[in-house]
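Input (structure):
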């Protein structure tokens, strides 16, 4: 495993396991357990995924079987916008994530969206960080202008920004802003979120064949070499193992550029954060 170092010195695995859209508790628990067995140490969930409890169960199962210790793991969750009303609601949301997961602390906790009173929510996260309940704090879906204003305003700068990052939406400008503020980029939907068909792309297939790898492994490696943490998701054991087998080859500069040429800009994004209807829809969603 390779690691990135957060601004507070914490080591974070560069490849993790995501559980977005795995609402079935048994399937989620089994998938996370198999991921930990396969060598993953970063697990990414959220209150909005409604499976924090399943992740916690898998963690305890793996620890009880001696596969890992709690200290080996890097568990991430996120505060949903319904809890970003004020500092008290945010504090209650953080406490609920801890209670639901059954974990004494979370290694990373993120503001899920830049909606609602996210400054008040952040102050509660800073307090929980000071108390050791959250080992690191960060944000998700903060675009460069939002992230800049945020970093210039808050007491503790976010350590991670989880955004959509893949060859069809490369977000080079966003990466530059994160680097400026020493914020680690983390990619959700690192394979494109199912909106594209990279498996039929002759260029990607050619690069994969050269290294005796799959197209998926090439796409993940591309982001890793940009210093981006990736959190692919799968409920199939063989694919779970495939997605972490990305440390025995390196793409050359030309291949990195070829893959980046697939970029479609904002039109390549899956979640339309600049669309007022999308924002209203997020604000209306309740998960507990």
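Output (sequence):
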């Amino acid at each position: 495993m390779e690691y990135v170092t957060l601004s507070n010195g914490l080591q974070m695995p560069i490849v993790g396991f995501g559980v977005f859209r795995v609402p079935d508790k048994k399937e989620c628990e089994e998938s996370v357990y198999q991921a930990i067995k396969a060598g993953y140490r970063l697990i990414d969930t959220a209150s909005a995924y409604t499976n924090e409890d399943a992740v916690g169960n898998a963690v305890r199962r793996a620890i009880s079987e001696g596969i890992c210790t709690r200290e080996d793991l890097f568990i991430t969750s996120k505060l949903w916008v319904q809890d970003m009303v004020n500092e008290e609601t945010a504090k209650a949301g953080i406490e609920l994530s801890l209670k639901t997961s059954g974990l004494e602390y979370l290694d990373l906790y993120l503001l899920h969206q830049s909606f609602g009173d996210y400054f008040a929510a952040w102050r509660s996260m800073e307090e929980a960080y000071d108390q050791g309940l959250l080992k690191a704090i960060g944000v998700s879906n903060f675009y460069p202008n939002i992230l800049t204003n945020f970093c210039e305003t808050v007491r503790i700068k976010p350590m991670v920004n989880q955004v959509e990052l893949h060859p069809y939406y490369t977000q080079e400008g966003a990466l530059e802003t994160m680097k400026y503020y020493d914020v680690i980029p983390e990619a959700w939907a690192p394979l494109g979120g199912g909106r594209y068909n990279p498996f039929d792309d002759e260029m990607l297939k050619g690069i994969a064949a050269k290294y005796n790898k799959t197209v998926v492994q090439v796409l993940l490696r591309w982001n890793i070499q940009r210093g981006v943490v990736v959190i692919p998701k799968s409920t199939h054991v063989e694919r779970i193992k495939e997605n972490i087998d990305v440390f025995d080859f390196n793409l050359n500069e030309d291949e990195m550029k070829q893959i980046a040429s697939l970029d479609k800009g904002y039109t390549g994004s899956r979640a339309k954060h600049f669309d007022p209807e999308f924002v209203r829809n997020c604000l209306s969603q309740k998960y507990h």
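Notes: The beta strands are 3-5, 11-13, 16-18, 42-44, 74-79, 108-111, 137-140, 160-164, 184-188, 229-230. The mean pLDDT is 97.
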